[in-house]
Design brief:
Largest sheet: 9 strands, mixed
CATH class of the largest domain: Alpha Beta
Keywords: Oxidoreductase
Pfam families: GFO_IDH_MocA, GFO_IDH_MocA_C
Distance between the termini: 28 Å
Strand content: 15-25%
Shape: globular
InterPro entries: Gfo/Idh/MocA-like_OxRdtase_C, Gfo/Idh/MocA-like_OxRdtase_N, Gfo/Idh/MocA_oxidoreduct, NAD(P)-bd_dom_sf
Family: Belongs to the Gfo/Idh/MocA family.
GO molecular function: nucleotide binding; oxidoreductase activity
Length: about 375
Amino acid sequence: MIVPGVHQPPRHGSVDPMTQATSSTATSPLTRPVRIGLVGYGFGGSTFHAPLITSAPSLELVAVLTSDPARVARLATDHPGVPALPTLEALVEAGAEAVAISSPSGTHSAMTERALELGLHVVCDKPFAVEAPAAAVTIEKAEALRRVVSVYQNRRWDSDFLTVRRLLAAGDLGDIHRYESRVERWAPAADPSSWKAGATPAQGGGMRLDLLTHLVDQAVVLFGPVASVYAELDIRRAGSAADDDDMLALHHVNGVRSHLITSKVSGDTSRRIRVNGSAGAYVVNGFDGQEAELIAGRTPLTEGDSWGVEAPSAWGRIVRGDLSEPVESERGRWDTYYPAFAAAVRGEGPVPVEPREALRVLEILDAAVVSARENRIVTLA
């Protein structure tokens, strides 16, 4: 028997990652593709957004907002015929109905609100805002203007995360008491030329607003609302302007404790997930392969049904003392996010990630700042 609330349909009508892959609105092209623009063509825009947009028959990439000469040249190579434009207004003039925002994190609120004012539906990359109050303002604007807004929490569709959801729903691990999730890198020297290396938290810099955003979102989807937060947010590298070595401990209302760690200074990057329950632990080392596939130039369009399929060597294991057995991984499904967004724009399906879900994540991350600054546990309403 699993803890209450472990596998509930996502709140506020968002898409359930466990069922989305078989949903006709998530996988079938619409009668009329959604014409979408993209803001930003740095690593995020070129790697995590454009290839998934152009792989989806239900969307048409009409233009990219960028003026950097190197990025304009890369866009011409990657997506011939897709123009680079200078403003959101120019995207609208080019016929965009929606926009995906992959600009620096500190610009997300202003960009999203301006796009809404121009009548665009919006995908906003995480973080939705740098603080929860700003996100709440954006949500109110979207609701007033009756526009669809979704936050790009693509790691809800990681192979390992979907496998955890399957195991919890089946009760294979018994009553869950602790969930551990890590994304760690070994980059002990900060790159001063990197925007993120020089960005303050107020500008959206730091691991808290980067990778911890994903880990908190996953923990809340798995185990529900959070009662209290304890955080350690540290700067370890010379030249870093924001946190680069973080630990977050969440106590969920249902009693589960989540321990979440992100770091740029971890020499051991092998650990990913461990779920401890009364009937055993599920352990995953290594990372979902979809990011590496996109970096290598492979896409859902080029790979077809093999997209997101993990090799047996990457599968996790259920461990019970000396006994250990492999568990076949669910297929990673980043390729279903944008078709689901397009269906939501057309009124044919739910929003893949509701903005109020992202607001709850930001409230937890705001509490983490207070906890780290005051060295105490922060209780949430």
